[in-house]
Each structure stands twice: as structure tokens, then as C-alpha cells.
Amino acid sequence: MKALERLVVILGPTASGKSALGISLARRLGAEILVCDSTQVYRHFDIGTAKIPLGERDGIAHHLLDLVDPQEVFTAGDYRRAALAVLEDLQRRAKLPIITAGTGLYLRALLEGFADAPARSEQLRERLRKTAHRSGPVRLHQMLARLDPEASRRIAQRDTQKVIRALELRLLTRKTVGEIHRSGRTALEGYRIIKIGLLPPRAALYARIDSRVQNMMAAGWLNEVRRLIALGIPQDAKPFEFIGYAQLRQHWAGQMPLPEAIRRIQQATRNLAKRQITWFRGESAVTWFSAFGDDPCVVSQAFRLFSRAE
Fold it and tell me: Lesser CB count within 10 Å: N end or C end of the chain?
């Protein structure tokens, strides 16, 4: 029987130091990093999505960044397909993969499998977009509530992209989104998965989140938003809904003072961290560390954990 390849997964809330730990381990182990983040797949949206700048990656290859343009739709299924291709390449080159995971749904899609869903129908999507433009996004959500009540409860009324995808799946397959996702899963095979979780003390995590937002502003986040607007990226592009980009766009439009925008970004990011913690606590077989990923003690213990898994 062929020995299982090892796969390291570093998971935890935003600002917990996943990237720092990933780079430290990759440097020691000659590994490459797969980023598992639903915001970092979009090109041009860099500072606010916390992409590690090229000069700070310590020469470690980072995969699954900048995959699509802002106007494109990208799903958990798309992520799984892209990640599997990277894993196949790393296996061929005998490179250890390290996944830094902030988006639980994407991680679940990769490790546990994701049901095969039909390809997007641009013709159907265009009809649904016209309905939203003509009658408003709430009208589309009402359609979804009638056709797939379970999906409608999970998707916000004004998240038009997700509503359109759910309606598309329902109309093309005549199944609910839940029925599709519960069928046909194929889990990732051939890997011994080592999960490392970062869960710093809540007060310290929140303080770091607030500080990181200020550092992002100092790094030119507002100028990045201005540049994105100048590029003509539509206001309804998905990345403009991300935490920070929405508030800074409102500030740029004169709808919110900058200090208030920053305060709201910090609060929304803290709320995101809460949701991530709740999600990741449901993951099985995680070795948790109550510290940040840039703590030298965590790096040493994580390395020993990996070594024991040989």
C-alpha cells in the first residue's frame, strides 16, 4: 500500500498569524503554501484582503492567489478544482503542501468534497440579473424563498450573486442547493492531514485586529480603493462587498467620515473572527494553540507535531 502524503492545515480566525506560521514551517520543511481564503482569489484587492506582499513571503511559493477578476464569480467548487491541481503539481515535485485556511467553507470543500454542480448558464444568469435590475434584489430573494426556502434563509437578501447561483442550481437541476451539496461528495484521498489551529486569547486577538486595520490604512488601503474605483470596477462587484472595501467606498463617496469607517471595519472584522472561531471549532482532529502563529514557541511546537507525524 502506498504511504500517505502529509498535508499540513493551519486554520484559525483572521489576524491569528496563520500566514506567519505557514511561512515559518515552509522555510523549515521546504514546503509551499496553498492559501485558502475566499477574498484573496480576487485580483487587485490586496491590502484589505491581507495578502502577504511578495517581499514578505521569504521566497516561499504561495498558490491560489489572484485567480479571477473582480467581476467574476468564484465558488467553493472552483476553489476545490484549483487546489486539487496545485496539490497534484506539488506531489509531482515532491513538495510538502501547507494550507493556511481562513475560509472554512473552502477548506471543507477541499478536504471533504463538494457535490458536482452544473456549470454556470450565462443565459439564465443574464435573465436573473435583468430581473434584479428591473425589480430589485429582494424580488430575486423572494423567488428563491419560494423555490428553495432553506437556501433563502442562509443567503442575505441583497447578496445578488449568491441568490442568482442558488436559483440557477434550483432551476437547472430541479433540486435544492442542500440536496445537491449533500450528494456526490468525494473526500480528498491519499493524504495524512495534520491540522494546527490558532486560537489566541480573545482580548489579544481583538487588539491585534484593531491594530492591523490601522496598519492597513497606513499602508495605503484608501488609495487602493480609489485606484480600484478609477479602474472602473463596478460597485456591485463581489470584492466591494468585503469588509473594509465597502466602508472605504462609502467614505470615498462622501457617505461616511473616515474615523467612523475605520471603527466599523474594526468591528466587522472582530465579528468575522467570532464566526470563524465558531466554524473552526467544528473541525475534527485539530491540535489547538492558544497563541499567535508568530510566537516562536508555537512554531517550535508545530514543527515537533509535524515531525511526530512522520
Answer: N
pLDDT in tens, 25-58: 999 999 999 999 999 999 999 999 999 999 999 9
* CATH number for position 143: 1.10.20.140
In sequence order, the β-bridge partners of residue 97 are 32
pLDDT, tens only, 220-271: 999 999 999 999 999 889 999 999 999 999 999 999 999 999 999 999 999 9
Do 29 and 173 lie in a common domain? no
Contact indicator for 189, 112 with CB cutoff of 8 Å: no
The number of distinct structural domains making up the chain is: 2
User: In 3-state terms, what secondary structure has residue 176?
Assistant: coil
Q: Domain residues for 264?
A: 5-114+185-308
Q: What is the largest CA-CA distance in the chain?
A: 64
- Long-range CB pairs of 239-247, under 8 A, 24+ apart, other chains included: 239/39, 239/42, 239/44, 239/45, 239/49, 239/70, 240/70, 241/159, 242/39, 242/45, 242/48, 242/49, 243/48, 243/268, 243/269, 243/272, 244/48, 244/213, 244/216, 244/268, 244/269, 245/45, 245/48
